[in-house]
């Protein structure tokens, strides 16, 4: 099975290395230079160089010179794992067994952007590691493999990312072997059950202390590393918060955003509900935040 591999993030790196370690034939690699778009960017051309695999870098796999190069590889299948632009029909037509993509969500539900972040922001208890056949639509092709992944209270974007990788490593071996022995039977998605998550913006990462402590906890754990972090504003300065825990206070008559206590560089802050508070445990505050001041 001759595999062309496309990707540009840490997830891509891990799965490509896993396939190579298991002695599958990678005949080409497509990746890109860092554009600042992917917080978890990784240049997988270094892996291609190490293993003497032909590679090209491009922002658009649908360009004519890329299509000519892809045709010359005679790949049986393409794995596109960790790529943020659509693959056109001209590219797909060059690959006899099709293009398989990856989406860390419970397709047909939760198509679209930032699936790890939105799952945590929304407080979902479960997501999925899903491989699917790429067509002209976004995340709507037949499902090749899907494993449900529980989301625990203590999970963050980093721990959920790791869970998805571990599941993917076994899944990709299983369906690659099924491709080899012609036993793979993809399952059509129920499009009537689908929804599409939107692209998040900078404002989506701002902590509003009128929110509940639970909502703030979910936002912070969703945006922690490898992502850019949730933000707060104090005295006109923006700072990043990496970790909070849910707390309580008996001071029900105080406004959201007020700093109630400070100890060992940790800050207890009033939230939106009557006894709600969060303890800011990890952050990048560059100046002292005084008790009685406000995050607004």
Automatic annotation (TrEMBL):
Classification via Pfam families: Formyl_trans_C, Formyl_trans_N
Transmembrane segments: none
Domain Formyl transferase C-terminal intervals: 201-286
Keywords carried by this UniProt record: Transferase
GO terms of molecular function: methionyl-tRNA formyltransferase activity
This protein's GO CC annotations: cytosol
Ranges for domain Formyl transferase N-terminal: 2-169
Coiled coil: none
Xref: InterPro entries: Formyl_trans_C, Formyl_transf_N, Formyl_transf_N_sf, Formyl_transferase-like_C_sf
PANTHER family: METHIONYL-TRNA FORMYLTRANSFERASE, METHIONYL-TRNA FORMYLTRANSFERASE, MITOCHONDRIAL
Protein name per Swiss-Prot or TrEMBL: Formyl transferase
Organism: Leptospira perdikensis
């Amino acid at each position: 099975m001759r595999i062309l591999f496309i990707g540009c993030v840490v997830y891509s790196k891990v799965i490509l290395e896993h396939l190579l370690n298991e002695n599958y034939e990678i005949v080409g690699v497509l990746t890109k230079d860092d554009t600042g778009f992917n917080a978890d960017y990784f240049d997988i051309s270094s892996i291609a160089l190490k293993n003497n695999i032909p590679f090209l870098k491009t922002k658009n796999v649908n360009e004519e010179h890329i299509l000519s190069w892809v045709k010359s590889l005679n790949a049986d299948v393409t794995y596109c794992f960790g790529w943020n632009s659509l693959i056109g029909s001209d590219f797909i037509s060059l690959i006899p067994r099709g293009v398989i993509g990856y989406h860390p969500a419970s397709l047909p539900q939760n198509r679209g952007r930032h699936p790890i972040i939105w799952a945590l922001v929304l407080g979902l208890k479960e997501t999925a590691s899903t491989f699917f056949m790429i067509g002209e639509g976004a995340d709507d092709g037949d499902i090749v493999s899907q494993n449900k992944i529980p989301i625990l209270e203590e999970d963050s974007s980093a721990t959920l990312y790791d869970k998805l990788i571990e599941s993917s490593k076994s899944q990709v071996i299983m369906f690659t072997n099924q491709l080899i022995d012609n036993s793979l039977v993809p399952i059509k998605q129920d499009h009537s059950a689908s929804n599409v998550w939107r692209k998040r913006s900078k404002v989506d990462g701002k902590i509003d202390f009128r929110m509940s402590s639970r909502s703030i906890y979910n936002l912070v754990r969703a945006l922690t590393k490898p992502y850019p972090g949730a933000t707060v504003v104090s005295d006109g300065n923006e700072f990043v918060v990496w970790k909070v825990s849910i707390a309580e206070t008996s001071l029900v008559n105080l406004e959201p955003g007020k700093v109630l206590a400070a100890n060992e560089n940790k800050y207890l802050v009033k939230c939106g509900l009557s006894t709600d508070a969060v303890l800011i445990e990890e952050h990048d505050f560059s100046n002292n935040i005084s008790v009685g001041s406000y995050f607004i």
